[in-house]
Design goal:
210 residues, alpha+beta, Pnp Oxidase, Chain A
């Protein structure tokens, strides 16, 4: 496929100020629920963008595991590249894109770790293989081979059995939003973009040019 000739006209919906919620979290709930009904796989997949101490940005896909008025939650290895960058610069952005709905949501804000209790609670819900993997994988570090990683999984399985505890270097982050933008694809690239900005305890809303 030649990407220069690949084009799709977006015609499935619109986003009007008279219909959008006054609070972006209410608007997020509505769109996320609809994505859950329409998107076949991983409607909670989102891009997390961080910036390192050298000013270079990096991005990767993580999974949204909770959201509310206090922010958006994801889990990872604290010693990973993203963890190191968030330790240095706690500002980040999230992006959810749903091609089936021709929609995306951009979320910007500051990030902090969730409590150990919240991390423990989520970790206990994960399949045992995932929990062992959290112990075995030195995330973002160079490893000699796939086989070495599999051996580490077996070693921790022998050590912990089917009930591995949460590693101290694994847990959750919460992004506390100060800006949330809702994007609805429209025909002729005249997309709808509504940007909510936090003003103290309240939110303001403006329309952006596509």
């Amino acid at each position: 496929m030649d990407p220069i000739h690949h084009r799709i006209d977006y015609t499935s919906g619109s986003l009007d100020e008279t219909e959008a919620a006054d609070n972006p979290l209410d608007q997020f709930r509505f769109w996320f629920a609809e994505a859950g009904r329409v998107v076949e796989r991983d409607p909670n997949a989102m891009t997390l963008a961080t910036v390192g101490a050298d000013g270079r940005p990096s991005a990767r896909i993580v999974l949204l595991r909770g959201y509310g008025e206090d922010g958006f939650v994801f889990f990872t290895n604290y010693d990973s590249r993203k963890g190191a960058e968030l330790e240095t610069n706690p500002h980040a952005s999230l992006l959810l894109f749903w091609a089936a709905l021709e929609r995306q949501i951009r979320i910007e804000g500051t990030v902090s770790k969730v409590s150990a209790e919240e991390s423990d609670a989520y970790y206990s819900l994960r399949p045992v293989g995932n929990r062992l993997g959290a112990w075995a994988s030195p995330q973002s570090r160079e490893i000699p081979s796939r086989e070495s990683l599999v051996r580490r999984v077996r070693e921790f399985e022998e050590r912990f059995g089917s009930a591995p505890p949460r590693p101290e270097n694994w847990g959750g982050y919460r992004l506390h939003p100060d800006a949330i933008e809702f994007w609805q694809g429209r025909s002729d690239r005249l997309h709808d973009r509504l940007l909510y900005r936090r003003q103290g305890a309240d939110w303001t809303r403006v329309r952006l040019a596509p």
